[in-house]
Amino acid sequence: MRLAVQTYTLRDQMNSDFWGTLRKIAALGYAGVELTDVRGIMRAEDLQSRLETMSLCVVGVHVGVEQIESELDAVLDYYSEVGVDHITIPYIPPERRQTAHDWMALGGFLSDAGARARERGMILGYHNHDFEMKKYDGVTGLDILLRAADGRSLQWEPDTFWIQYAGEDPVEYIKRYAGRIGLMHIKDMAAGPEKKFAPVGAGILDWSAIFRAAKTADIPWLIVEQDDCYGASPLDIIAESLHNIMKMNLT
User: Fold this and answer.
1) Residue 179: predicted pLDDT
2) How far is residue 53 CA from its own chain's centroid?
3) What is the distance between the alpha carbons of residues 50 and 95, in angstroms, rounded to a whole number?
4) How many Å from the N-terminal Cα to the C-terminal Cα in the chain?
5) How many CA atoms lie within 13 A of 250 on its CB side?
6) Which residues neighbour 9 within 8 Å (Cβ) at sequence distance 6 or greater?
7) Which residues of the chain have pLDDT under 50?
8) pLDDT score at 84
9) Which pLDDT value is given to residue 242?
10) Residues 8, 250 contacting (CB under 8 angstroms)
């Protein structure tokens, strides 16, 4: 398993110094990054050529569901030129996830979109928050979504924090969908009722069990992310996460 960073953690730094921030991530020792959609920022050939000089792999990119609906071919064209093969939907707005039928319909749509991506040698994925764990007649929205989609056409990008936040077990879910996970967000939760984000290894999640499950599921990339750094330097946060992971000797 290799370690990457979701650049949303460093969104302000990325906005002010895109390339400098990527160089700092590489200098810390991370092997890869997962980007948010950058098609409006630079040409694909420029992104590809600059990345080659950094020894930094783009393991995937987050692209909104609206863009998957309206311009899937353009998304696939751009990222295939860059050499990115994982395209992941990061969020679904509330009006599209009110009922079990909504989740089933979304699974069908993403399965069809994923089949088009698969024809291009690319992978479509879905990233969870906590709201996917709401149950409909005892079945979570996430389970409805993933069961409605062809497993060959839609992967899942688990987020350990949000699974824990919703009161579910990240390890059990990793085991349940082993074989459909190519990327996973590793994110910790601080002790206390506030359930704040924390650097990996500084909170309450059972990382030994999570990493064992990830190894068994043969997940190639683990992606460090912290949605809110609460005023601390995001670079210091991802450095602390990396230090803790190395100290735990889990990879």
Assistant:
1) 92
2) 24
3) 39
4) 6
5) 23
6) 224, 225, 226, 227, 229, 234, 237, 238
7) none
8) 93
9) 97
10) no
